[in-house]
Design a protein that fits this description.
With about 220 residues, the protein is of the alpha/beta class. It has nine helices and six strands, in the order αααβαβαβαβαβααβ. Helix 2 packs across helix 5 and helix 4 runs parallel beside helix 5. The N terminus is likely disordered.
């Protein structure tokens, strides 16, 4: 089967939305993307080669506007971060932050994480973050949610033993069903409900709070 045909069969977890960048951000994006990007396709990633060190590697799935990645990199120089999103604006904002803060520990991927995950070796990541994913609220859409059984299995594969899968959402149905889905995977321990102190409040979170939705943070440790 051709690669493109296989990918078209994926149950996508996002709604494509393309917005043009302004002239300045466009220049930043074009100037920096080749130096700091990882392709979603390709052979198994050698993370030592990518970052030039053996530091732990975190994966942020759906970086939004890039706020968290830009804040995390400068304060966690002993961690490496890969931030992926399908939308160009957030990727461009992170590239701008990489340049502004001289970040050697941050890389971006513009693409679909369902494709990218196949590039990670078994037990190669320390953390996976799923913060405020698309809720897909209608029952017929929920098969598109990111934390579904097949994706959770893939997260378990790429996480190290002791590694952490993190979720933050302001949709109660999302976190409750995610707890059930992850519980069905024997690789993970019981869920913990606590917010990491480094997870800043993003614009999407503030919008939800303004609309009366409170965020919930859940994490699971890979135990086997």
């Amino acid at each position: 089967m051709l690669r493109g045909d296989s990918e078209n069969r994926l149950v996508r977890t996002f709604r494509p939305r393309r917005r043009k960048l302004g002239p300045e951000l466009s220049k930043v994006y074009e100037r920096l993307k080749d130096d700091w990007s990882i392709a979603e396709h390709g052979p198994t990633l050698d993370l030592l080669e990518v970052f030039g060190n053996n530091n732990s590697v975190c994966l942020e799935i759906g970086c939004g506007r890039g706020d968290l990645a830009v804040s995390f990199g400068p304060t966690h120089l002993d961690h490496n971060l890969i931030a992926i999103d399908i939308h160009t604006r957030g990727i461009a904002n992170i590239l701008q932050g990489i340049e502004s803060h001289s970040l050697e520990n941050t890389r971006v991927v513009e693409g679909d994480v369902l494709v990218l995950l196949k590039r990670f070796a078994d037990a190669s990541l320390t953390e996976i973050w799923v913060f405020f994913p698309d809720p897909w609220p209608k029952p017929r859409e929920q098969r598109r949610r990111l934390l579904r059984p097949d994706v959770v299995r893939e997260c378990a594969r790429v996480l190290k033993v002791g590694g952490v899968l993190r979720l933050a959402t302001d949709i109660e149905d999302y976190w409750r069903k995610s707890v059930s889905v992850v519980a069905a995977n024997e690789s993970f321990d019981e869920p913990e409900f606590s917010r990491p102190d480094w997870r800043i409040e993003t614009v999407f979170e503030r919008r939800g709070i303004k609309e009366g939705r409170q965020p919930v943070d859940v994490s699971w440790i890979r135990q086997v």
